[in-house]
Amino acid sequence: MLFCNIDLLDENFALKRGQYVGVKDGKIAYIGDTEPQEDYGERYDGRHRLLMSGFYNVHSHAPMTLLRGYAENLPLQRWLGEKVFPFEDKIDDEAAYYGTQLSIAEMLASGTVSFSDMYFFFDGMMPAIRESGIKCNLSRGLTVFDDSDYESLAAYKDNLRLLNEWNGELDGHLIGDLCIHGEYTSTPKVVEAVAAHAKDAGARIHIHLSETQTEHEECKQRHGLTPAAYMEAHGIFDSPTTAAHCVWLEDEDFDILKKHNVSVACCPASNLKLASGYANIPKMLEKGINIALGTDGAASNNNLNILQDIYLFGVVYKGFYHDSTLLTPAQVLHTATRAGALSQGRTDCGKLAVGYKADLCVIDTDTPQFTPMTDAACNVVYAAQGADVRLTMVDGEVLYRDGEFKTIDIEKVKAETQKRTDAILRRL
């Protein structure tokens, strides 16, 4: 495809007007202000459009669209114990398939090109991910509340399938990660076993870390260590790790994350809605920690429109830390694009630059909220809506365009998801 006469945000999120961008063999092959002589196939009229890197949602639980609006107005521990866990016990692979498709559709429609997910029901999730064409770092949520060995757990068997059968599928669209749900939902020996497995397999790890004050303080009571120090002591950070939330980190925790190049998946909407608190973004920036962005699941957000989290990330921490200069639009957009790609280990993604994967989105600028466009990056962060996304491309393939999903039967998916949620609610 050749994007013609289109405005774009370059790799530094500076606006360039009237550009031509050629996509070939899944990569960005040309960027310039003159039309290239080479034939790139379909020509895309870029008038009143803004091209930029697609977004990376690095913390989600895709099948939890089934729970949208169900578990509300509760603190995290009651939210999990009274509502989420009982509902999840009734989910099966077929329900997870449709819930995952619905999540992917929502992400594609708001410009997300890749997501990191932590959940169960792989036989339902895998077909949904494959069929959609989106990129995904998938991990199997691991919880254990007794003295079981890692090798005896269903999660271990799923991890073997993930790493040995599915990892690297679809030209690298799928990456298999390992997972510890959290310190409070696991045991030290299982944490150490997962750490060893990841190190031996060269896998990445996805965890929850210091999401709530209760989680953080009870870990210190149990082990005499903060969750970050605990995970470090048991070897988790010996492998590349994405740690979700990180709201209640203490001073030494920031040094631990930086020392091990841990990426933080900041989830502002979920943290606000569950009243978990405010991550210390100024300290993370000071330490040079890689901060990426996640929506969390639809039970705690309640949507997967990452532009909502981009907006919240751009404004909430200014207010909480009383610093209007905190987080420039370029920093926010870096968090939602390149930083997310790096957290997934996708070093050739997340930039609108020649040679990088053509994971792109197009935003309609001919809207009231985008007018006037005095600063395009500011408009994306502070004004754009998910519905402004007109095209989402992954590895050069258009998966969403002008309200049409190329790989998902959205009407069927909506109906089937509602049907399965209704059935589960009748059984609760």
Automatic annotation (TrEMBL):
| Keyword set includes Chaperone | no
InterPro entries under this entry? Amidohydro-rel (IPR006680), Metal-dep_hydrolase_composite (IPR011059), Metal_Hydrolase (IPR032466), MTA/SAH_deaminase (IPR050287)
Keyword list (alphabetical) reads:
Hydrolase
Domain named Amidohydrolase-related: residues: 51-398
Origin: domain of life = Bacteria
Keyword check for Hydrolase, yes or no: yes
Q: What is this protein called?
A: 5-methylthioadenosine/S-adenosylhomocysteine deaminase
- Organism whose genome encodes this protein: Butyricicoccus faecihominis
The root-end lineage is:
Bacteria, Bacillati, Bacillota, Clostridia, Eubacteriales
